[in-house]
Automatic annotation (TrEMBL):
Keywords: DNA-binding, Transcription, Transcription regulation. InterPro entries: GntR_C, TF_FadR/GntR_C, Tscrpt_reg_HTH_GntR, WH-like_DNA-bd_sf, WH_DNA-bd_sf. CDD domains: WHTH_GntR (cd07377). One of its GO terms (molecular function) is DNA binding. Residues 13-80 form the HTH gntR-type domain. This is DNA-binding transcriptional regulator, GntR family. The keyword Transcription regulation applies.
Amino acid sequence: MPTPLPHGIHKRSLLRNDVYQSIRDAIIDGTFAPGERLRDPELEAWLGVSRTPIREALLRLERAGLIVSQPGRATIVAPEDPAATSNARQVVAAMHELAARLAVPLLVPDQLSAMVVANADFSAALEADDVDAALAADDQFHAVVVDASGNAMIPVVLEQAMPVLRRSEFQHFSTDAARHSVTVHAQIIKLASIGDADGAALATRDNWLSLGAEPSI
């Protein structure tokens, strides 16, 4: 797909992280297809920033496995790799399991309420076939637990592993199978509300491991 036309989506003061997220999201949603060449001048025109933050973003995306750089030749969107996606899914599931195990004894009513609201937003987004909103609501749901865990290494590891898995998430949330996650989220909330850290952790792990698979119940 051609690079989107400039339309003022960003200002010159755009933070480096926003440049990274914009290119990442364009890869995840298929705007930039696997195998497509990414050209600095076109990205600069699209985002309205200089080459420096573009190159920094591309380096981060390469480390995350979403692009492949061929020195002196081209920078292309990495093809989807089932093995890499499976590896990322296992790491993400393990990190969220750990987060839940640590967080549940510490969660306060306001945090549980935030999870309920996020799951309701997630459900509404799926009903509206709004994948971007569903991803955002799902992020908000899990962020409550990650933040409450108090382990600063968990988000660091997740930032490295999530980009590859995100393409699978985007596809999954475009299907009816994603509705199963609403039920699992509700189960996690219930287990957390009664202080069952092990149960909530295992349910969280299984939720991530089942990503992309048809629900069994």
